[in-house]
Automatic annotation (TrEMBL):
It comes from the Bacteria. Protease subunit of a proteasome-like degradation complex believed to be a general protein degrading machinery. The lineage of its organism: Bacteria, Pseudomonadati, Pseudomonadota, Gammaproteobacteria, Oceanospirillales. The active site is at T2. Its EC number is 3.4.25.2. Keywords: Allosteric enzyme, Cytoplasm, Hydrolase, Metal-binding, Protease, Sodium, Threonine protease. This is ATP-dependent protease subunit HslV. GO terms for molecular function: metal ion binding; threonine-type endopeptidase activity.
Length: 176
């Protein structure tokens, strides 16, 4: 279980996540890295769910980015289509957030592709806590996107037993 949150504010997009890996009610690891940058395409990915499944999906997404010259929209659509229609991939249990300088998407195995209306989205066991905190901070403070992600993840860690405060936060700046 985990918590991943993304915030767009000004010319920044930030994706952050905690490091907890749980198996049932047991914390197996506290320092996993569930947020990564794909430097070739300047895309941040974050995942919640089975680690092996998420790594498989991240690799498939990167292949789609390569195939479609970094076009995030086409790559997201093609990944969701492949994930939903392939009998083996359909069994993968994970959610992904992907963000580049212009767009952020949540992708699920049920074929969902969600682009947040307000620039804030979260997934995972503590996702609703982080989402609520991030939305409140966006609406009521002048904090940077990075500070909002950090604070919302720490709030989630204080509430959700499947979220810790060992954070990985990645940021991209918008162009022009």
């Amino acid at each position: 279980m985990t918590t991943i949150v993304s915030v767009r504010r000004g010319d920044q997009v930030v994706v952050g996540g905690d490091g907890q890996v749980s198996l049932g009610n047991t914390v197996m690891k506290g320092s996993a890295r569930k947020v990564n940058v794909l430097p070739k395409h300047k895309v941040i990915t974050g995942f919640a769910g089975s680690t092996a499944d998420a790594i498989t999906l991240r690799d498939l997404f990167e292949q789609q980015l390569d195939k479609h010259q970094g076009n995030i929209v086409t790559s997201v659509i093609q990944l969701a289509r492949e994930w939903r229609s392939d009998r083996v991939l359909r069994r993968l249990e994970a959610l992904m957030l992907v963000a580049n300088r212009e767009k952020t998407f949540l992708i699920s195995g049920s074929g969902d592709i969600i682009e947040p209306e307000d620039g804030v989205i979260a997934i995972g066991s503590g996702g609703n806590y982080a989402l609520s905190a991030a939305r409140a901070l966006v609406d009521n403070t002048d904090l940077s996107a990075r500070d909002i992600v950090e604070k919302s993840l720490n709030i989630a860690a204080g509430i959700c037993v499947f979220t810790n405060d060992n954070l990985t936060i990645e940021q991209l700046e918008s162009v022009g």
